[in-house]
Amino acid sequence: MRENIIKTKSFGFAIQIVNLNKQLCLEQKEFVLSKQILLSGTSVGAMVREAEHAESKADFIHKNAIVQKEVNETIYWLELLVATNYISKKLFEELNFKAIELIKMLTSIIKTAKGLNKP
Predict the structure, then answer these.
(1) Is the full-model pTM beyond 0.90?
(2) Residues of the chain with pLDDT under 50
(3) What is the set of domains in the chain, with CATH numbers?
(4) Residue 20 class from Cβ within 10 Å (0-12 exposed, 13-18 middle, 19+ buried)?
């Protein structure tokens, strides 16, 4: 059975977001922004799992579009966290890179599902 790359990467991303949330809460006593990024960052993997069992092609496309929005929201929270010095530029760059990678993969998945990637 082939590895589902988007499933694997979104799960790994969620793990990093959970660890970021723990760091923000325990070390910096930051509870508002950390909750926001926890919600959007972990919903990415959850929605990827939902899309895996979509009821139709349209449902599959819709669920993956929602995942794109959640990743984009997560990027916003990352930008805010780095701008307010809650996270380092290095950590921001690492997580932002992974988020953008997810968006690119999702865009490709959606285009393929819509039949837009045909030569």
Answers:
(1) yes
(2) none
(3) 5-113 (1.20.1440.60)
(4) buried
